[in-house]
Amino acid sequence: MFSTECTPLCPFRAFKCTKNALVIRRRRDRLEALCEWSGDRCIGWRCQFAVCMRHALLPDGTCSLMVQRKEQKPPIDEEAAKLPTKYPDLGKKLKRRGVDVEGEV
User: Which of 30, 71, 78, 99 shows a CA-CA span of 20 to 30 A to 105?
Assistant: First the structure.
């Protein structure tokens, strides 16, 4: 499993260096990201020239594409049951506009 931190070796190929200084080389059996501008290893999202091409880089360095969404929408049946209490005059307004409404909303 991948970490949720944004890295230059992005599995979505979305990480970009705006200085065009990012070089990815193979060292033995691993990939290594190097910065030609600084002459050292790439520091990833902490670099001021780091950009995510999919706009998924969050301010704390996590990738929103890798983070699983925890917020789930409630089923439509539950939302429909809340309508009469949430919008009590909705049925009357729709009838005035000429929209046919089944029962009262």
Answer: 71
